[in-house]
Amino acid sequence: MSNKKILMITGDFTEDYETMVPFQALMSVGHTVHAVCPDKKSGDTVATAIHDFEGDQTYTEKPGHRFALNATFADIKVEDYDALVIPGGRAPEYLRLNKTVVAMVKHFFDTNKPVAAVCHGAQLLAAAGVLEGRKCSAYPACQPEVELAKGEFMDIPVDQAVTDGNLVTAPAWPAHPAWLAQFYVLLES
């Protein structure tokens, strides 16, 4: 697998597994991953939350770990990156209000570079206006955002993923094997 430079845009109360697992998995196969958050620098941390599926009508939320960022948001030049990862959790809800973040996401679609988004990451995709005519999976509560952004919401099992062009999406962290496998294919194409 060729070494790619991957940007991960995350923030406070990102989903713990949806941040740490792809961060480590992508590095373990030789990619460089820079995790950033607006108004934070390399060495700062973001709070994470663990979302579990325990039979309730929605996920439960528990405190996660502190996730250390390894790059400074203000120093990022988005054109230097080959791909983008957008973890879920609550972070996309507020990140979509940041015009710089939205412009960064849009760049990856304008240049047809690989993008992997999971769970509530679809909120950021919708805000960037990149879902029109695309198939997109997400946490089921994000279906209205996907459809309002003129995307086709893919109601797939929680452990599956879907690829549409340069975009691979999944409902939640149980899909990591499928989601990452499909992202690896995009990274090699």
From TrEMBL:
One of its GO terms (biological process) is proteolysis. Keywords: Hydrolase, Protease. Pfam families: DJ-1_PfpI (PF01965). One of its GO terms (molecular function) is peptidase activity. The keyword Nucleus does not apply. It comes from the Bacteria. Residues 4-182 form the DJ-1/PfpI domain. Belongs to the peptidase C56 family. This is Protease I. The lineage of its organism: Bacteria, Pseudomonadati, Pseudomonadota, Gammaproteobacteria, Oceanospirillales.
